[in-house]
Amino acid sequence: MRSPQNTATTPARSRFGRGRLVGTAAIAFAVSVAIENAVLAGTGAPTFGAPIEEVLAYYAANRDPVAIASSQVALNLPLLLVFVTGLHGLVQRQGEAGADWSRLAVAAGATLSAIFVLVNVLQIGLVLSADGLAEPTPAFELVWHVHAAAFALALPTLGTTFIGAALAAHASGLTPPWQRLLGLVGGSLLLAAGLGSLAIADGSELIFVGLLGFAAWLVWLLATGVRLVRSGPR
User: Fold this and answer.
1) CA distances (Å), 229 to each of 39, 88, 104, 181, in order?
2) 200-226, pLDDT tens digit by residue?
3) 92-129 burial code (b ≥16 CB/10 A, e <16)
4) Where are the transmembrane segments (predicted)?
5) How many domains, in total, are found in the chain?
6) What is the extent of the structural domain holding 28?
7) Is residue 7 in a domain?
8) Are 18 and 230 in contact (CB under 8 A)?
9) 108: number of CA atoms within 13 Å, CB side?
10) 5 in any annotated domain
11) Is 168 domain-assigned?
C-alpha cells in the first residue's frame, strides 16, 4: 500500500515531468526554426522584392537546401503544437490566472501551423516548378506571390501566439517579468508588421520590423524552455 506521502508527491513529479516536456519542445522548436532559416539565408534565398528571374534561378539551383528547410518545417509543426498545448496544460494546473491567454496562444498557434504548411507547400511547389523552366511563367510568378503573401500574414499570427504565450506563462508564475515584457514588445512588433502585409509581400523593408519580433520570439522560447527544463512548474 502506498503511503500518503508518496501519493502526494506523485502529482508534483507529474507536473515536473510535463514542465520538462514543454520546455524541451520550446528549445527544440527554437533551434529547428533557427536551422531552417539559416539554411535558406546561407544559400542566398531571394527577398520578396527580388526580380522573378532571380527567384527562378535560386529555386532551380537549390533543391537540396529547400528540401532540408522543408524537413525542418515538418519537425517544427508538432513541436509548436506540443509547446502551446503543453503550456496551456501547465497554466491550467497552476490555477485560472493566465488560462484565457493560454487558450489564445493555442488557437493562434494552430492557425500559425496551418499558415506554415501553406508557406512550405508553396515553396516546395516553387522548387518543383523551377525544374526545367528556362524562364519564369505566369503560374510560377503567381505561386511566388502567394508564398510571399502567406509568409507576411504569418507574422501577425505569430505575434498573437507570442503575446498569448508570454502573458499566460507570466500570469501563472512560470516566467519572470522581463519575459512578459519581451513577449509584449516582440509580439507587438510582429503585429505591427502584419499591418503592412501587402507591402511586405511586395518586398518592403517593413519585414525587418517583423524579423525583430521573430528574433525576440526565439529568445523567449529558449529562455522559457531552459527555465521549465531546469525547474518545472512551481
Assistant:
1) 28, 16, 23, 21
2) 999 999 999 999 999 999 999 999 999
3) eebeeebbebbbbbbebbebbbebbebbbebbbbbbeb
4) 73-91, 103-128, 148-169, 181-200, 206-229
5) 1
6) 13-231
7) no
8) no
9) 23
10) no
11) yes
